[in-house]
Structures are given as structure tokens and as C-alpha cells.
Specification:
With 184 residues, the protein is α/β, with parallel strands linked by helices. It contains seven helices and twelve strands. Helix 3 crosses helix 4. The longest helix has 14 residues.
């Protein structure tokens, strides 16, 4: 089983994935290799490799808030594994949402409920919120990051047009790991 992991480039073995996930804080091999575990690790790295406009954060102690819509299990796993960690000096906070209401207060929003994807994307258009999803049509609806599973591999597509119009920047390492990059 091979996966692509940030900062390492290329394919690495499941053993190295386990080591990376353990560094992220996973406590068992099953969680580290699960699809949800891989998504959680990617979300953490999206927070580390994204630059938001200066006025996004009130001050240096303001956390990066990651919102989850229709993805409670992923929110629980992410929260359990980021406690005590930070991204670029900002602590990480989790917000569970049931609709687009309140999503604009987050810096990253994962949309697990495909039926809400279009409404979330419309509500956040032009706002400095990284939208992440995992459903058919998420990217074509304007989502910025769309997870793609191909067999045992998990990767993602990027829409730099949406990211740039929201005044955010992604590290070139992150862009280099994407399967497809639109608008860049």
C-alpha cells in the first residue's frame, strides 16, 4: 500500500505512513491507515502549508479553526490528534457545523455532506476559508481541495483560482503533491 505524504514527495510505504501518522499523534496503526486518518493528517498539513491574509487572525493567539459539516467521525479523529499541536504558531480548534451558517468563522471547512457542498461553497465564495471536500462534483462546484481515492491511494486536486480569489496562498510543496492543479 503506497500513499503520498506532505514534505516527503513521491510514494512511501505503509510503514512510513504509519510513522508520519504517529508523529501526527495517532495512537494505533488502524487509525493511522484508515481513510479518515489520512484525511485528518492531510487537513493538519493544509493548515501548516496555507497562508491566510494578515487580517484573518485577530492576533497571534487566535487559533486556526477547522469546521466540519457532515463529518463528525473525522472531526472527532482530527480533534483527538491535534490537541496540543499548532500550525505556524496558531493552535488548532475544531467546530462542528450542521449547515453553512458559521462556516465563515473558520479558516478551513471540510464538507462531508455532499448535499450541502454547493451551499457551503456559495456562502464562502471569496472569503479566506479553504474549502475541502470528498464528493463527486465538489471541485466543479467551486471547492478548493477535493480528496480523490484511487484504489489504496489517497490524493487531492486543487483549484488555485478559488484559493487565489480568496487571498490565500499555498506552499509550493503542497501544490506539487496535488494530483491535478486547476488555475495554476
Amino acid at each position: 500500500m503506497n500513499f503520498r505524504i506532505f514534505g516527503l514527495g513521491g510514494k512511501i510505504s505503509a510503514l512510513l505512513l504509519l510513522a508520519a501518522a504517529m508523529a501526527f499523534g495517532f495512537t494505533n496503526r488502524a487509525a493511522a491507515q484508515s481513510e479518515e486518518g489520512i484525511k485528518a493528517a492531510y487537513l493538519y498539513n493544509f493548515a501548516k502549508f496555507t497562508t491566510w491574509p494578515a487580517k484573518t487572525f485577530a492576533d497571534v493567539s487566535t487559533p486556526i479553526t477547522v469546521g466540519f459539516i457532515g463529518a463528525d467521525a473525522l472531526a472527532d479523529l482530527f480533534e483527538a490528534n491535534v490537541t496540543g499541536k499548532n500550525a505556524n504558531g496558531h493552535d488548532l480548534a475544531v467546530k462542528r457545523l450542521t449547515s453553512p451558517a458559521g462556516a465563515e468563522t473558520c479558516q478551513i471547512v471540510f464538507v462531508g455532506d455532499a448535499s450541502q457542498a454547493a451551499a457551503v461553497i456559495a456562502a464562502l465564495k471569496g472569503k479566506p476559508v479553504l474549502t475541502v471536500g470528498y464528493s463527486d462534483g465538489f471541485a466543479s462546484a467551486g471547492g478548493m481541495v477535493n480528496f480523490i481515492k484511487n484504489g489504496a491511494k489517497m490524493s487531492f486536486d486543487l483549484d488555485l483560482t478559488g484559493i487565489t480569489s480568496a487571498r490565500m496562498e499555498l506552499d509550493t510543496k503542497l501544490r506539487g503533491l496535488a494530483r491535478n492543479v486547476k488555475g495554476g
